[in-house]
């Protein structure tokens, strides 16, 4: 589970990040709203924790930009204890839950888990990354300039790259998608299918062979 | 050409038919340049037509022009239309390069609806080419060449039926399904192209 955590108080951020990591979450910590928006826009996350009061862009603005771009990553807002209006505004802008500061770590983890569980069914259906959208139910892959229907395996492969956004070896892909039942050439061929299909719909990202394996990167 | 159209085109009827035949021959020369092996032939088939007088009249009237044969040849770009249907999507672009390199032809426009499909799912590459046509006061003629794969051709013929049949039930469903079908076929076209590239690189 990958989480974006936007909090401008560095001490608090470091402490919370450490505890979340111990709980098994992968955490990207950022310290202002602009950074939060940039990361959320370009990477896949299972959930986001946004502090309301942040420099450059506040949590509310990040949230409303997210929803305006049809990004429905589950969002937990961090509000000041007394700020009832913040809670209401956050929820009406599309936050999934809120937590008043100061909070107990146990409660944050419980709320994150329950939020992720609730939104799992929708979240896994539609993945967005860069300018591409992949509907995992229908295998429809699209950008503003075109659309294609992928095969089930192609869709699973692309979902893997979007969700984890890290390099994979052909061997690892073979294990994750085919239980090691295929040859490495099959993996290479499926990567080629995806490469050609992503470029056909004018995707701004594609799958490239890097020193660490196959990875999703921006095209030139 | 049927009598009605022959009467409409008048003195232009014969030169148009001659030009149509010459064009087909030129296209065959181009295709033979790419390969002479029938197994590898890029074009599955080629069709051509001279625009019907009804269709010319309709289009000219739509543009607010007088429906004369001369207007049909100078104001429209598809009095003669050619369609080259290929097996693979890559072949469309190989043929396009040859068309662009033809010494007596000048490319006027290229509309690539394969790279950027129409919202309904229509995919094809349309090229307007200016060719020599020395007849009467004319020196050139614009003609249209459409290039597409068998899958795209099949899809277009189905979509055409939808467009010209009135009062179809479940139109919304059919439109959505046609779009999905186009996306699936385009995906398969690319899969086949990828496999072919892989075989050839061996």
Label the CATH architecture of the largest domain in chain A.
3-Layer(aba) Sandwich
Q: Any guess at the CATH architecture of chain B?
A: 2-Layer Sandwich
The total beta strand count of chain B reads: 5
Order of helices and strands of chain B: HHEHHEHEEEHH
Order of helices and strands of chain A: EHEHEHEHEHEEEEHHHEE
Q: How far apart lie the N and C ends of chain A?
A: 30 Å
**Sheet with the most strands: spatial strand order of chain B:** 1-2-5-4-3
**What is the approximate shape of chain B?**
globular
**What's the structural domain tally of chain B?**
1
Number of helices of chain A: 8
CATH homologous superfamily designation of chain B: Beta Polymerase, domain 2
Helix content of chain A: 40-55%
Helical proportion of chain B? 40-55%
State the assembly state of the protein chains: heterodimer
Shape of chain A: elongated
**CATH fold name of chain B:** Beta Polymerase, domain 2
Average pLDDT of chain A: 89
Total beta strand runs of chain A:
11
Report on this structure:
The complex is a heterodimer of chains A (220) and B (202). With 220 residues, chain A is of the alpha/beta class. Chain A folds into 2 domains: 2-123, Rossmann fold, CATH 3.40.50; 126-218, Orthogonal Bundle (Arc Repressor Mutant, subunit A), CATH 1.10.10.10. Helix content of chain A is 46%, strand content 25%. Chain A has helices spanning 10-22, 33-42, 59-68, 84-93, 105-123, 152-164, 170-178, 184-200, and strands at 2-6, 26-30, 47-51, 75-80, 97-101, 126-129, 132-135, 140-143, 146-149, 205-210, 213-218. In chain A, helix 7 crosses helix 8. The two termini of chain A are 30 Å apart. By secondary structure, chain B is an alpha+beta fold. Chain B has one domain: Beta Polymerase, domain 2, CATH 3.30.460. Chain B has helices at residues 3-9, 13-34, 53-62, 69-74, 89-101, 150-164, 171-201, and strands spanning 43-50, 80-86, 106-112, 125-135, 138-149. Chain B has a 5-stranded mixed beta sheet with strand order 1-2-5-4-3. In chain B, a hairpin with a 2-residue loop joins strand 4 and strand 5 (138-149). In chain B, helix 2 packs across helix 5 and helix 6 packs antiparallel against helix 7. The longest helix of chain B is centred in the last third of the chain and has 31 residues, at 171-201. The radius of gyration of chain B is 19 Å and the shape is globular. The model of chain B has no long low-confidence stretch (mean pLDDT 93).
């Amino acid at each position: 589970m990958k989480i974006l955590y936007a909090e401008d108080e560095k001490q608090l951020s470091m402490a919370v990040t450490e505890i979340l990591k111990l709980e098994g979450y992968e955490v990207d910590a950022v310290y202002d709203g602009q950074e939060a928006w940039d990361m959320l826009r370009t990477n896949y996350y299972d959930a986001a924790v946004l502090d309301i009061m942040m420099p450059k862009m506040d949590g509310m603005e990040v949230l409303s930009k997210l929803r305006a771009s049809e990004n429905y990553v589950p969002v937990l807002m961090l509000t000041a204890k007394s700020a009832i209006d913040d809670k209401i505004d956050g929820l009406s802008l599309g936050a999934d839950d809120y937590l008043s500061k100061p909070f107990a770590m146990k409660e944050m983890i419980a709320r994150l888990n329950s939020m992720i569980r609730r939104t799992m069914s929708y979240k896994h259906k539609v993945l967005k990354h860069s300018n591409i959208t992949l509907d995992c139910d229908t295998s429809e892959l699209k950008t503003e300039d075109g659309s294609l229907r992928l095969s089930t395996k192609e869709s699973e492969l692309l979902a893997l790259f979007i969700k984890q956004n890290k390099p994979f070896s052909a061997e690892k892909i073979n294990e994750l998608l085919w239980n090691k039942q295929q040859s490495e050439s099959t993996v290479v061929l499926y990567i080629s299918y995806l490469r050609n299909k992503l470029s056909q719909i004018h995707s701004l990202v594609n799958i490239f062979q890097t020193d660490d394996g196959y990875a999703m990167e921006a095209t030139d | 050409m049927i009598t009605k159209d022959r009467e409409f085109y008048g003195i232009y009827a014969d030169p148009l038919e001659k030009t149509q035949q010459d064009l087909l021959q030129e296209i065959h020369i181009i295709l033979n340049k790419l390969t002479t092996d029938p197994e590898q032939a890029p074009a599955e088939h080629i069709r051509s037509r001279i625009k019907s007088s009804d269709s010319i009249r309709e289009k000219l009237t739509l543009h607010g022009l007088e429906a004369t044969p001369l207007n049909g040849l100078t104001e429209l770009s598809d009095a003669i239309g050619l369609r080259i249907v290929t097996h693979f999507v890559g072949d469309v672009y190989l043929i396009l390069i040859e068309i662009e390199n033809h010494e007596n032809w000048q490319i006027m426009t290229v509309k690539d609806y394969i790279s950027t499909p129409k919202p309904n799912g229509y995919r094809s590459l349309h090229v307007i080419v200016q060719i020599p046509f020395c007849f009467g006061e004319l020196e050139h003629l614009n003609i249209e060449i459409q290039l597409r794969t068998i899958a795209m051709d099949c899809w277009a013929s189905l979509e055409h039926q939808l467009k010209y049949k009135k009062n179809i039930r479940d139109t919304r469903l059919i439109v959505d399904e046609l779009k999905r079908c186009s996306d699936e076929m385009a995906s398969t076209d690319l899969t086949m192209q990828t496999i072919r590239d892989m075989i050839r690189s061996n």
